Fold this protein.
Amino acid sequence: MKTNTKNIEKLANKSFTIKLTINKKDIQEAHQQTLKEFQANFEIKGFRKGKAPLDAIEKETPFEKLFEKTASKVISQEYAKFIKKEDLKPIIQPRVKFEKAPENFTEDWHVEITSCELPELKLNKDYLEKIKKIRKASKATEEQEKTKEIVDGLVSSAKVDLPEILIESDLQHQLSQLVNQAQQAGITVEQYLKTQKTNIKDYQEDLKKRIVREWTLNLSIQKIAKEQKIEVSPQEIQDLLKKNPALGQNMNLVNYILTQQKVIDFLKK
């Protein structure tokens, strides 16, 4: 199912595509702001640093560089106004596509922006009964094994249609991390994957599966916590931060780690 309006298309999986026309007047204003920002550190023969005329700066600067800065400025402004007006709550950076590659700053730009909100997950009504049966039939002796069985049962009880743009966003982020790690180790990505007895194609497919599983688990945890009124106390947060102060840089992660553990404990009962 999808919902269409004049400028936006919403899909049932919570992804949406916006079509915007960026007015040439706004483009020109953003372009002038960009030139003034460049001016502060611009050095050109015959002028003191920061005093070069804007037209000289434009002439000496590659169009691509000016375009990237100007487009980022004006599109982000228009996008922010649109999602506020439509009460959208995107969870990832948008993907921007131009109807036609701009060649100047004196004509309207037509862009298509795609992003997504938090997907909706459904749990089977009998998921608690299923988890109970898994616990009774379990032969696991280690807590880690018991937890994995419960997590597997929970994920298999959930249904969620994840937007492709969400999966791709996470995929690209993790691939970028892989590239950085390989560079730090002084090897190529291909060399690293060879040590893992895999290749880039299989690695990406496996990574996509893991991303889908992680999102399914995370959304399930959030849903159960809300339904069962499972909350994290300030004291629990402080206790965790005492054990691992570095986590204080990401309080959302702290809250999720504690919530996940409390939900798993609830499912183990």
